Amino acid sequence: MHGNQDRQGYLGRALNWKKGLIVGLIFIGLHFLPWTLAPQWVHIMIMIFLFTVMGQGWNILGGYAGQFSFGHALFFGLGAYTSTLMFIHWGLSPWIGIFFSCFIGIMMGLFVGYLSFRYGLTGPFFALIMLAFAEIFHMISISWKAVGAALGLLIPLKGTSIALMQFVDKKPFYFITLWMMAGALYLIWRIEKSRMGLYFLAVREDSDAAEALGVNTFRYKMIAMTISAGLTSIGGTIYAQYLLYIDPDMTFGVLNSVEIMIRPIIGGPGTVLGPLLGSLVLTPLAEFTRLAFQSYSGVYLMIYGMILVAVIIFLPDGLIGFAKAIIHKIRREAR
Amino acid sequence: METSSLLRVVGISKSFRGLDAVSDVSLELNPGEILGLIGPNGAGKTTLFNLITGFLRPDSGTIEFLGQKLIGLEPHHICKMGITRTFQIVKPFSHLSTLENVAVGCYNRTADVREVEEKAWEILRFVGLDAKALEPASSLTTPDRKRLELARALGTDSKLLLLDEVMAGLNPTEEGQIIDLVHGIRESGTSIFIIEHHMRVIMGLSDRIFVLHHGVCIADGDPRAVCDDKNVIEAYLGKGV
Predict the structure, then answer these.
(1) Which of A169, A196, A238, B11 is the most buried (most CB within 10 A)?
(2) Candidates B53, B87, B104, B146, partner chain A, best to mutate (most A CBs within 10 A)
(3) Do A202 and B55 touch (CB under 8 A)?
(4) Which residues are registered as beta bridge partners of B213?
(5) How many angstroms away from the CA of B1 is the closest CA of chain A?
(6) What angle do CA A8, B90, A214 make, to 5 degrees?
(7) Binary contact (B93, A206; C-beta < 8 A)
């Protein structure tokens, strides 16, 4: 049959060597960046990478599978507390603790997911259930002395030690978070173009229609939950090791849920690059406004709010949709 | 042995808060058959489809497909076994392309991307949507959405399709195209159970017609015989004075 060749490749992975080369060069180039940047910029880059990882975590569940979570701080907090408590009490290296964090986060995710999805709770109900569970753990962590209560936990610094994931310098964290981000982006990219990715989108678009076409919607929501909870918990552990201090508000707090979800939402939910783009724009903005309005804590949240409103009104597909539209326009004009 | 029938429904009933939507309905569908399902509004036609495909659970009765019981199975499981339904109110995956919409159905039988893509294109050509394959489903017109609904169901490679008013809202030309498609599907060996309001269409299309009225079967048989049936005429037009 004629014309068959040009009818292939619209599904599945389509990364030509040109794009692959650009991505590869950017990734290699990023390895030299910390030596050229001022320390506070290295810090901002670490935050960008870390929030991209967790943004991807939120994205796979909220953006792709359409299960909008308003409580991802739950997984972040579980991840942070699990590895930290294991280190403080048993001296367990966070490198091993991170697996436990991941495990606990996933178990919690599957529990909440089972409760919600088995009984058909989606949309706002699911969002509120996630919020409720995050708040339950918020309350527990505030009042339970054994986990530091409201004062939080200080991770004893034992000097630079690769084995204990402790570094006086910021650069090692730059590389850890960079590679983790690369891994998360690769994972989501692989999933997006697979059957699983398409099924996630089908579940998001219309759950009944997906069921009728043979998609086990419950199972795929649970898979999305697993990946999502895992990535976010890992982020929590790294964050704790980086700051060497955690407290209930910054881990299980509602604001942290907002921090995690706002980047993929503004960047473009349900896309591979959306969380990265959102993080690139919002993370520096948050850091700088926090510095600039130090005496007025919470101003950066008002700025978040304004950006969110603007993006929802003017860029419903997020920054990535806007960027694509511009590229499309430039290409058309070039022709 | 009665294993020759593809689908066997025996005495199923479903009521919603005391209202009997479907009561004690039994029917058989033979392989390769086009069975028409008609009845006035609110007769329980879509409810019957929902019961067969697992979207609703009957209060009583049994449903067997190829000798296997379907009661209690979830819709996706029933689809895997070989029954796919379409929805009266079309449910396209709006933000996905037409091709991706069909691919969701095609993935029912294989996880191989290339195979799925090939099959999806083939189906899109068959239903005449290949020119719009890369456009988002939200941009499709009503007749095209009906076609897409059909195309996705075809992708699942099922032995039995339950088509719920795939021609509602179409003009005669478009209706004719869908009728040709349905004939084409049957020729490929798929059995069809179809709900349709348009009498002329369903009379010409079906091998046999099943009539529901207030959730009860009032006629089952040859299209012409059903058309002349006193009960059917009464159900549609009311009793003569």
Answers:
(1) A238
(2) B104
(3) no
(4) B216
(5) 30
(6) 60
(7) yes
Contact B12, B208 (CB under 8 A): no
- Which residue does chain B place closest to A1, by CA atoms? B122
* Helix or strand holding residue B84 (H, E): strand B83-85
| pLDDT tens per residue across span A141-193 | 999 988 888 888 888 887 778 878 888 888 899 999 999 999 999 999 999 98
- Inside any domain, residue A325: yes
In a domain, B128, yes or no: yes
The shortest C-alpha distance from B69 to chain A (Å) reads 17
- On whether residue B168 sits in a domain, the answer given is yes
Angle subtended by helix axes A39-58 and A171-192, to nearest 10: 30
Q: Looking only at Cα atoms, what is the longest distance across chain B?
A: 64
Q: A68 in a domain, yes or no?
A: yes
- Residue B197 has a CB neighbour count (10 Å cut-off) of 14
Residue A148 phi/psi, 5-degree rounding, is 90, -5
Q: Is residue A10 part of a domain?
A: no
Q: With contacts defined as CB-CB under 8 Å, which chain B residues touch A7?
A: 117, 121
- Does residue B104 form part of some domain? yes
- Give the CATH number of the domain where residue A41 resides: 1.10.3470
Given phi > 0 = left and psi -120 to 50 = alpha, else beta, which region is B38?
Answer: beta
Number of domains in chain A: 1
Residue A8 binned pLDDT confidence (cut-offs 50, 70, 90): low
Q: What is the extent of the structural domain holding A40? A: 16-334
How many domains does chain B divide into? 1
Please give the ipTM for the structure prediction. 0.91
Give the model confidence (pLDDT) of B148-188 as tens digits.
Answer: 999 999 999 999 999 999 888 888 888 888 898 899 899 98
Identify the band that residue A7 occupies on the pLDDT scale cut at 50, 70 and 90: low
Q: Do B114 and A12 touch (CB under 8 A)?
A: yes
B76-91: pLDDT as tens digits: 999 999 999 999 999 9
Q: Are residues B133 and A209, on separate chains, in Cβ contact within 8 Å? A: no
Query: Are A215 and B55 within 8 A, CB to CB?
Result: no
Predicted pLDDT at A123: 87
Asked if the Cβ–Cβ distance from A201 to B96 is below 8 Å, we say yes
Do the domain assignments include residue A9?
no
Q: What is the pLDDT of residues A13-61, one digit of tens each?
A: 666 788 889 989 999 999 998 888 888 899 999 999 999 999 999 999 9
Residue numbers in A near B75 (CB within 8 A) = 208, 211-212
pLDDT of A209 reads 95
Q: The domain containing residue B171 runs over which residues?
A: 7-237
* Contacting residues of B for A270, CB less than 8 Å apart: 95
Structure tokens at A208: 């009944």
Please indicate whether, in this complex, the C-beta atoms of A214 and B53 are within 8 angstroms of each other.
no
Give yes or no for a contact between B39 and B212, defined as CB atoms under 8 angstroms apart: yes
Domain assignment present for residue B206? The answer is yes
Cα–Cα distance measured from residue B185 to residue B200, given in angstroms and rounded to the nearest whole number: 20
